[in-house]
Amino acid sequence: MVYRCCSYYSLRQVVEGTEGDSVILKCSHRRIELEEKHLTVHWRHNDTRNVYDIIHGKNRAEVLPEELKRGRVFLKLTDLQLSDGGTYLCFVPALGIDHSTQLLVKGVLGHGTGTRLGRTLHLLIPLSGFILHFI
Q1: Which coarse location class describes where this protein primarily resides (predicted)?
Q2: Which end of the chain is more exposed for a tag (fewer CB within 10 A), N or C?
């Protein structure tokens, strides 16, 4: 009988952006095998369970195809809004990747700047054989 045990590694990252700008969230710093043609992205908001589909880079978020070709999953968020702030989790069970990113979005207020963490968002990326899950 052969047992296969999985080892997980966890990364924590803080990314700061300004309202209206773009940021890139990195899921993995190591090369992983992906097939772009199997990629579909679903955003789920933790509180309301609304699902937003982002297919082939439509809307304000996309998984960078040039990075996918290199075996890395990077999520680009454009035209940042204060409500984009929050925690994003990328989880790849088949590869033992558990990556958390805290996005801080700074906005211009009447007399200075402010930062908002926003709500928690979920991003599910079904790929051949495993799922990336951003919270």
Answers
A1: membrane
A2: N
Assess if CATH 2.160.10.10 describes domain 9-134.
Answer: no
Q: How far apart are CA 97 and CA 37, in angstroms?
A: 21
Q: Find the DSSP H helices in 3-46.
A: none
Q: What is the pLDDT along the chain (135 residues), one digit of tens a residue?
A: 433 444 444 556 888 999 999 998 887 655 555 555 544 444 443 444 444 444 443 467 777 778 777 767 777 888 888 888 877 777 655 556 667 778 888 986 654 555 555 444 444 454 544 455 544
